[in-house]
Amino acid sequence: MPKLNLAIISILLLFAITSCEKTNVEPGTENNTDTTKVAPKGWTQLQNYPGTALRWTFGFSAGNKGYVVGGQYEGSSGSVANVFQYDASADNWSQLNNYPGKGMGLMAGFSINGKTYLGTGFNYSTNLLNNDFWEYNPSNDTWTEKGNFPGGNRQGSISFSIGDYGYLIGSLSRTKQDVWKYAPTMDEWTQMTDYPGTGIAEMIGISVNGKAYVGGGTSADDVVSDFWEYDPALDKWTKKADIIEPLYNPVSFTKGNKIYVVGGIGQNLKFRKDVLVYDTATDAWTKAEDFKGQERSAAVGFVIDNTAYFGLGASSKIAGGATYPVALKDFWKFTP
After folding, report:
1. What's the rounded Cα separation, in Å, for the pair 59 and 61?
2. pTM score, whole prediction
């Protein structure tokens, strides 16, 4: 089984990207016709995250803002409860009220109807797993405690939302890939059909057009590549084409019918900078342009105004002939 001193939460966020950004241009002087300039595709570096370099954070978007919650900093067993908001229009960060939950890294959560639900996770200061769960309202920057997650204390679970429900799957501390559905209107959890894949934690997990796609991750013995579709209406799993390569701990987002998978850790526990693309319509994997920064896992991501944002996380450095983990704070945007 991969050593988990470098195992990092798969920050799995649902990014709904439907179109490229466009800027209207005044009619040209030569032929007096309207032209449209499409925003450049690919990766662009932005202002760094202003806090301590972190890994194992949680990220989400609400309206036209992005949020980064908690995490572990390099060179210490400590963790932070900080919440920073990112304003893409100004490429600027501001600090908000701290996250009150017990787990400050490897948390799971999802956004439903304008609010975000977040919990479980590991606290690096107390060395304890947790099962508390919280609701965040971005309109007034407030946290409200909800009922504890009934599946027990855990870390490294994957999570996503479909419609009015959130879903939480697996954990680093478990060998059973249990699936739980959360109804925020009732603050109620329901156990569903177990995930049949070989990964138990740190998988890809994201929803597209009312279905979820889950795969990769760490198993009891290895890094794996099997990939599955979940239909919540039938509570049914269907095997899909394997991922191009085994991996865990990536960031994922969607554009139309396609899923983009960025970074993570691959075979031989090597950090990745590849971008893989899965087409849900054709059940096929391809590769896109690599991430332009340092290869990494444990990164954070969210979408604002049809553009994906990605950064922080963990990578490695070589010093004195030895390789060490390192936390990062650079931040980027990506237009597929």
Report:
1. 7
2. 0.87
Q: What are phi and psi of 231, to 5 degrees?
A: -105, 110
Single-letter code of the amino acid located at 236: K
Q: In whole angstroms, give the CA distance from residue 159 to residue 121.
A: 12
- CA separation for the pair 302, 69 (Å, rounded): 12
Is 317 in contact with 332 (CB distance < 8 Å)?
Answer: no
**72 lies in some domain:** yes
Specify the number of domains making up the chain: 1
Determine the Cα–Cα distance for residues 102 and 119; give it in Å rounded to an integer: 8
Q: What is the extent of the structural domain holding 158?
A: 12-17+44-335
In a domain, 34, yes or no: no
pLDDT in tens for each of the 336 residues of the chain? Answer: 433 333 333 334 433 333 333 333 333 333 333 434 556 789 999 999 999 999 999 999 999 999 999 998 876 667 899 999 999 999 999 999 999 999 999 999 999 999 999 999 999 888 899 999 999 999 999 999 999 999 999 999 999 999 999 999 999 876 678 999 999 999 999 999 999 999 998 999 999 999 999 999 998 789 999 999 999 999 999 999 999 999 999 999 998 999 999 999 998 889 999 999 999 999 999 999 999 999 999 999 998 888 999 999 999 876 566 566 889 999 999 998
In-domain check, residue 28: no
| Nearest in space to 207 (alpha carbons), one of 183, 185, 228, 223 | 228
CATH, residue 73:
2.120.10.80
Closest by CA to 310, choosing from 264, 258, 256, is: 264
Which residues have CB under 8 Å from 277's CB, separation 6+?
A: 258, 259, 260, 261, 285, 286, 287, 288
Both tokens of 16, joined, read: 């709904």
Read out DSSP for 223-240? Answer: B---EEEEETTTTEEEEE
Distance from the Cα of residue 147 to its chain's centroid: 23
Q: Is residue 125 part of a domain?
A: yes
Is residue 228 helix, strand or coil? strand
Measured from the Cβ of residue 186, the count of other Cβ atoms closer than 10 Å reads 9
